[in-house]
Every structure is written in structure tokens, then in C-alpha cells.
TrEMBL record:
Organism, as annotated: Tauraco erythrolophus
One GO location term (cellular component): kinocilium
An individual GO BP term: axoneme assembly
PANTHER family: MITOCHONDRIAL RIBOSOMAL PROTEIN S18, RADIAL SPOKE HEAD PROTEIN 9 HOMOLOG
Name recorded for this polypeptide: Radial spoke head protein 9 homolog
Length: 200
């Protein structure tokens, strides 16, 4: 929306849009039709982006879509047990999920990235033996690199658990223990915190 009254859907994201958006730095301009120019780009990326012979341009709308995809992939999370995997491999929302206990809700191991697992495939059979295949089919936050990229806090007198990402500053996840209430929201600049390893 450009006027906060009329709203339209964003276009679907493509791999090319994400690749181009990753080369851009700086904050958003606030104009969906604004076109970015590639100023500081290395030779390898330039060859990939300029392979069709034309200088690629990316509009702010496409950059926004790609940034949302990056944020969802990197820090979109769910509590353990909110979704289940059937023996046939399909994933469904768990209707029996009644929330995490307060003790479990304070642990990073109780939250998973809501995207295709990467670290889970690298675990040994011994490590996988303790996992429940119906609920532990995603990557846990406790193994995120760099370590310490999440903060866990209690709000409202210990009745709400809040996780904040230090990699994408502005991403806040909440869960009310013993209830089905959870979700996340992002209010940030759209810039990844590349200095995080040096801050920890």
C-alpha cells in the first residue's frame, strides 16, 4: 500500500529476486516503484546477474518480497508440537496442541524453524534416537549459528514468552504458555545484522 487505505497482494517470490535483493544494502525508500542500481558488486555476482546482457534493475516491491522471504526462511519459527508430520510425510497443524509448559517455553530447544530442515539431516542416528519423528522433524533454534542469536524473555509477569532475533533486528516471536496463542511479527529496517558474530 502506498496510502494505507488501498492494499494489494505482493507478487510471488522467485530465486532470481532473492539473489538480486541479497546484493543490495541500505534501507528501503518507501516507494514500491523505486529502482535500485548495483554499485558495489563483486565479479562473480556480476557475471551471474548480468548473464542476459542487460543491466539488471530491481524495484523496491521485488526487494520487499525477497526480504520477506529471507526473513521467513531465516527466523520464521513455531513452538514444538504446533505442527505434526504424518507417517506418509505430510505436515498438518496439530489440533491437540495446547501450548508449551512455562518450563519448556523458556528453552530454545522448544522452538523450530518453520522451513525445510537443514541441520536435522546431518544428525547421527544416535542423536535422532531421542527425537519424536512426528514433532521433531524441523531444525531447533538451539543449534543456530552464531550461538546467542536469540534472546528469550518473560513478559507480563511471566505469562508471555518472547523471543527476539538478533540476526534480523525487529523480529519478535511470542507464545503464551499453556495456550494455543503464538506468532511473530517483524518491525525492522529490512537489513540483516551482519555484525552479529562480532557483537556476541
Amino acid at each position: 500500500s502506498s496510502n494505507c487505505v488501498e492494499w494489494s497482494l505482493l507478487p510471488p517470490v522467485t530465486k532470481e529476486m532473492v539473489a538480486r535483493a541479497e546484493q543490495l544494502t541500505g534501507r528501503f525508500q518507501g516507494d514500491p516503484s523505486f529502482e535500485y542500481e548495483y554499485t558495489e558488486i563483486n565479479a562473480e555476482d556480476a557475471e551471474r546477474l548480468f548473464e542476459d546482457g542487460k543491466e539488471p534493475m530491481i524495484k523496491e516491491e521485488a526487494r520487499l518480497v525477497a526480504t520477506i522471504e529471507q526473513i521467513d526462511r531465516a527466523v520464521g519459527i513455531i513452538p514444538r508440537g504446533a505442527f505434526v508430520k504424518t507417517p506418509l510425510g505430510s505436515v498438518h497443524e496439530n489440533r491437540n496442541f495446547e501450548g508449551l509448559s512455562l518450563t519448556e517455553a523458556k528453552k530454545l530447544s522448544s522452538y523450530f524453524h518453520f522451513t525445510e530442515p537443514v541441520n536435522l539431516k546431518n544428525k547421527t542416528l544416535l542423536e535422532k534416537a531421542d527425537l519424536d519423528p512426528s514433532t521433531d522433524f524441523l531444525d531447533s533454534l538451539e543449534h543456530d549459528i552464531p550461538k546467542g542469536s536469540w534472546t528469550v524473555q518473560l513478559e507480563k509477569g511471566g505469562t508471555v514468552v518472547v523471543l527476539r532475533s538478533l540476526l534480523w533486528l525487529g523480529l519478535t516471536f511470542y507464545h503464551v504458555p499453556m495456550t494455543k496463542q503464538y506468532g511473530y511479527v517483524y518491525f525492522g529496517t529490512g537489513e540483516k545484522n551482519l555484525d552479529l558474530p562480532f557483537m556476541l
